[in-house]
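From the thread on structure requests for the teaching lab: each student submitted one protein with a one-line request. Submission from student K.M.:

"Model Integrin alpha-3-like from Sparus aurata, tokens only."
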Amino acid sequence: MATGVCVLLSVWVGVCMALNLDTSFPVLKMGGDGSLFGLSVALHQDPKTDNYLLLIGAPRDKAEPNVPANRTGGVYSCQITADQSDCSRMKLIDPDVNLSEDVIEDMWLGVSVASQGRPGGRILTCGHRFVKLYGAFKLRHMIGRCYLPGNDLQYDDTDVHWQNIVQPCNHLGDVSSEVMCNMGISAFITQTEVIVGSPGSFEWQGNVHVSWMNPDVLFDTRTSSFPNMQRRNIYIGYSLTQARHLLSHEDETIVTGAPKDSKDDARGSVLLVVKRSDKLMTQQTLRGEQTGSYFGNAVATADLNNDGWNDLLVGAPFYFHRQQEVGGAVYVYMNAGGWFDSQPSVVLRGPARSAFGMSVTAAGDLNQDGFQDFAVGAPFHETGSVMIWSGSSEGVSTEPSQVIKGHAVSPGFRTFGYSLSGGLDVDGNKYPDLLVGSLDDTIALLRTRPVVHINKTLKVSPDIVDPNSCDFCIQVEVCFSYIFSAGEKSDRDNITVHLTVSADVTSLKSRLHFQDNGQSVYSGYLSLPKKHCQPLRVGLLSPIRNKVEPLVFSLNVSLFEKLPKKRNAVQDLQRLPVLSQTPQPIRTQIHIQKACGIDNRCHSNLQMKAQFTDENRNPFPMKKGRQVFYYSGSINRLFLEVNISNTPSPGQPAEDAHNAVLNISIPPLLVYSGVRTKGDVHELVECFVNDTELLCDLGNPFKSNQEVQVLIIFQPSEISLHAKEIQSVLQLSTLSEQSDLFPQSVSMLVEYSLQASLTLINPPGSASFSGHVIGESAMKKTEDVGSLLLFTLQVHIKGRPLGRQANMQVEFDWPIEVSSGKWLLYLTEIQMNGTSEPHCSLPSNIINPLGLMVSKEVEEKKKKRRSLEEEVKGNMEEQRHTPLPALHLQGHKKSYTLDCVHGANCVTFVCPLLNMNNSATLTVRARLWNSTMIEDYSDARSVLVRARATLKLQTNKHTINMDSHSTEIEVNIYPDLGQQMDSSAPLWIIVVSVLAGVLLLALICLLLWKCGFFRRASARELYQPKTQKAQMKSQPSDNDRLDEEL
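Reply posted by the TA:
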């Protein structure tokens, strides 16, 4: 199918066309409750009086007085007055009806109603449920009946040729003929023909009956209809109309709907039919789109594009599309010069469950634009709606020009738009009106307002204003003229225009004010045709900062409408016109005089260079053509240096740059702190933060040959480990003319320099060795190895935690053995605090490789030992500064230094600080290998052992770096004090001491011999005992004393 656009009522708004069907002053008529007053409607003009009437069908109305029935239906003619009950019933049924043959009860008289128009002025109305009783068994044959009262709405004996219309459906015969034809469900009348539809003919095949009346010869009547085509249940004749210029300019074409045509799955069809003698011949069949949509429920014709050919409108009220929330459709077939494409030109669709397309009618040229319009009813959308579509040279728009809702016309409507009739001007203003029916026993006549075209002009002088001498020197004049669409004007017209003149509409803050009210906007009223123009005076506000932008004036116009309060009479809509289209403002402009040459146009030449610098105004270093920022926590601020000039260049003058502004986007990683200015500026550059932008006013104007340096101060407080780049976009702007002002980007890479420290907060102090050598196999516990060495390292990061971007790690160069391969410092444990792991996990050949047991006693009493070690350390310091009594005799003792370069073999291992926040501690426990010291360093005065710990960064982020931090761990080792005294005397002292002792002993022996000491003693002296007991007590070592304390 050709492209059809789904149009929902929620978006149906008036476009730039006149919405001239009036809803403020409808003419309402009401019938009896439950009578279905308004099921069918027609506009009618009495040819005798030229008065217009509203013809209303009420098929469920009670019977006329004296008619032997309870409910027959009826037809009313209503005057166009404000009285809602000003309607009279037409007397159509003969009170002397033969009830033995005719059943008029519930015949639904008024199911259709049509007006012949001038000059005939007759009315055609039918009741399709009229029944004829047939045969001995009184078979009920529902053939229907139509009535044709004269132009005075009564039976006219002088018009018997028309009054006694032939009832085409014969009740004689069987059901396969037309004994159940339901004639009159649709009806149409011309000056020479009566056309009625009978969808029940030939077992619901349907039929159309045409009765031609010879206008010159009485009782010369010819009839034509469809034959029995053996097509049951398709309902031909359900709707019908007739018009010329469909298939031929000369012949008339009948259009009839068959909404249940089952040839293509009951999609319905529309037949275009011509008359051939006594038969109707189908020339073209248009098929429906969807099964059960009732395509052909309503048909209408109108020349929508004014090409001289009538176009075709077909309603399908039960079409639906669940996903699109669509209910009902109207298919528009544009005439292609006497034939129709099988596919519609446009498909209009309504909202869900609205029955959009239940009624369709040609409405005439509502706005008098030269193109015919049409109306579509959607009676089940809310309180009912009627949509108006305007024709045009391009055909039909997909959106209506006006939407009229039932509740806006009268609160009593629930199914507004069930029936429609249009095309007649009932109030004489030369604009056709629209009659709308419903199932609510209420109808509404909607009249059209005149459409007026307003022409407007706006003049402002002078063209150039001198700001130094302007005291309301600007003159503004607005003028109007008008014309109606119908073409007539009168001096009695009273069109009031509401005008609004806005001065300097393009500026945020107006530079102008009107003399009348002191404001930048003037509003007033002008009555046409009494007055056509309105002069105004405007002045400049001082001081004027913006001299470049023109002074723009705007004029908006609307019609001033004062609705009458009187509602008990039909209002004259001639005094309530509407504009032909939505008014569009008109503009004009003048300029302020400037020192920019004879053309009063300023051509600037602003140029800009920008770079990032440090606090000392030194640009950051370049790397591969880009600046690089090595960030560390010690950097508090940086500058964005912007150099701006307005100097001439070849082919480009440098006149004043008015309202020169520098727009700088603030990088997300930086915080704006302030601005400094250097250069030939008369005033300081002012900058204002606007969300994420910095707006700097460079001057008004930024004069020719002027240069300025702007230093934007930023704080790098938002820079984190995620940062990769700092970028800012700079944009110069001016009100002067310059076409090469493009955004300029300045950026630099960020390399994060991490600030961290590694501190030895608890050094191991001094240690001693003594005792005797113990082999590895004899050791069971770590305390068998030797003295305990305990020290603590602290790692601290300044700034934010690393998170998952990187990890810190401590690398140890540990002297695990001496160069001879003997153990030196034996690691037993490394504890960590402030990380996700409590211990440093190392291979078994580094931590306690012999698998010695750590003494529980020692572990439980660490605090006491630590205090005792501090005491020992104090004693050692005291011994270090106080010479030992015998040390001056031990000059051959040596001092040793053992590190990874000299005398020791080191092992390198790493302790990762996983998930560390800002600080962590490492506690290292080791043992001095006592046996190695006794065996290899018994001649040592002291042994200095050095280890190294290095803090390193582990990351795959190239923008994060850190300088490695190392610290040395020193352990001073001394022999035990007792051992030092016994073995530290030099050999020559021993030899001299021995010789001196021998000589002293010889001298003593000589003296004793001279004194008689060696004489033999007496027996008494020999047996007189003299004893002397010598006792010697050895002093305990430090370790023995430590064990006694514990």
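TA comment: The mean pLDDT is 85. The first helix runs from residue 160 to 163.
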